Amino acid sequence: MQKLPPLNDLHVGIIGLGYVGLPLAVEFGKKRPTLGFDINQKRIDELRGGNDGTGEVDQVGLENATHLTFSNDLDDLAKCNVYIIAVPTPIDSHRQPNLRPLIAASETVGKVIKPGDIVIYESTVYPGATEEDCLPAVERVSGLTFNKDFFAGYSPERINPGDKERPLPSIVKVTSGSTPEVADLVDALYRTIITAGTFKAASIKVAEASKVIENTQRDVNIALINELSIIFSYLDIDTTSVLDAAATKWNFMKLSPGLVGGHCIGVDPYYLVHKSMAVGHIPDIIRHSREINDGMARNATTRLLKKLIAKGKNIKDARVLMLGFTFKENCPDIRNTKMIDLVENLEGYGMNVDICDTWADPAEVQAEYSREITTQLPPADNQYDAVILAVGHKEFVAGGVDSLRARMAPDAVFFDMKSIFALADSDLRL
Q1: What is the pLDDT of residue 315?
Q2: Can you give the pLDDT at residue 69?
Q3: Cα–Cα distance between 419 and 430 in angstroms, integer?
Q4: 3-state class of 349 per DSSP?
Q5: CB burial class (10 A; 0-12, 13-18, 19+) of residue 84?
Q6: Is the pLDDT of residue 397 over 80?
Q7: Residue 228 to residue 251: CA distance in whole angstroms
Q8: SS3 of 31, please?
Q9: Cβ-count burial of 143 within 10 angstroms (0-12 exposed, 13-18 middle, 19+ buried)?
Q10: Whether pTM exceeds 0.70
Q11: DSSP for 54-109?
């Protein structure tokens, strides 16, 4: 068995420089030689120029990572002896796990990995994916043998895009390794950058499972609130008012109804559903929760239709202004945004939808969803039959409800999906 390198001799390569990989590369780059590797030349050029389009790291943060370099050259990656893979793990059109990015990254590591090196995975997967799907790809390309020539770890990412209150070092990190010695070294490596501390899991599978259930638990809890919201809509009760009252009890978990998108809650549970069904168990609660949350755009459309009809509006050719397209507020992340579902549902009834988002990149939205958006609020000339506050970006909220209503025609509907303004200020809320 190959000998592990000492902690002080670890040269880290981060593969994938998105919302997860870049903050990780920056923190390691403050402490030790670190390479940020990405196959996207445009992304490499952007970061070399001191600019992060995701908004997760500012120019000062990049400059402070004095040991960090960026490259898409395999020769540069080969100089590392620890490879941390932080690429997306999406789902396909059939809501099945798409491991292609992860397998491709594993094959990239296989081209450069050397005896004694360690590969660590951060991407969210189902339990067993690292050892059953990823590491065989490394072995196949490299010709090396896992746990004899090279070793592995798994440390699930816990990045919350756009959250400046909880940066990477302040979030406890789960770690694991393919042998007890590797687990100790992986844990020690992360402890050099994580001030909140680490938790060493019993195995790679335990670490994988801990990550996927974090987001599955949130998905199930939100599904309950969304179902309550549907029930209360039939009873003509405002859901937020009910939640405010219930939250006065000390052990009530207060969540809000809404569209569940993003790369975590809206995707990760499908990985657990896939693995559970593969071993013979149908996970009804998790599966039904996904169905409820995935159906909220359709439910929101139905509520808006009823309100427009009640106000005497024609549905066909009604003009709708949708405020927000990213999956969450004050963040440019459009991955798996459910706002596209809402737009498509509205258009399915013949409505004309204009999209405004002050954070999203119009070019990225066009490339990913074939939609045009504007980054500036349209003029206040009373033109829209409905204004939907879909994402609570600070620019939309700052002007108050009167600013938004100024863009509405007479008897139009203001749909405050996030319940940001007072109940009396909106015509409709989830």
Answers
A1: 95
A2: 95
A3: 7
A4: coil
A5: buried
A6: yes
A7: 18
A8: coil
A9: exposed
A10: yes
A11: TSSS-HHHHHH-TTEEEE--HHHHTT-SEEEE-----B-TTS-B--HHHHHHHHHH
Burial of 280 (0-12, 13-18, 19+ CB in 10 A): exposed
Helix (H) or strand (E) holding 382: none
Q: How many whole angstroms separate alpha carbon 51 and alpha carbon 43?
A: 9
Q: Where are the alpha helices (DSSP H) in 284-331?
A: 284-294, 296-310
Report pLDDT digits (tens) over 134-175. Answer: 999 999 999 999 999 999 999 999 887 777 788 999 999 999
Among residues 327, 5, 318, 12, the alpha carbon closest in space to that of 190 is found at: 12
Instruction: Match 């809650």 to its residue by tokens.
Output: 265
What pLDDT, in 10s, does the model give residues 203-228? 999 999 999 999 999 999 999 999 99
Give the active site residue among 80, 134, 264, 356.
264
Q: Which DSSP letter does residue 146 get?
A: B
Report the amino acid identity of residue 227: E
Whether residue 264 lies in the annotated active site: yes
The 10s digit of each residue's pLDDT in 333-344 is 898 899 999 999
For the chain, the helix, strand and coil percentages under 3-state DSSP, each to the nearest 5: 40, 15, 45
Q: Residue 116 region, left (φ>0) first, then alpha (ψ -120 to 50), else beta?
A: left
Query: Of 160, 338, 334, 321, whose CA–CA distance to 258 is shortest?
Result: 338
pLDDT given for residue 1 in this prediction? 77
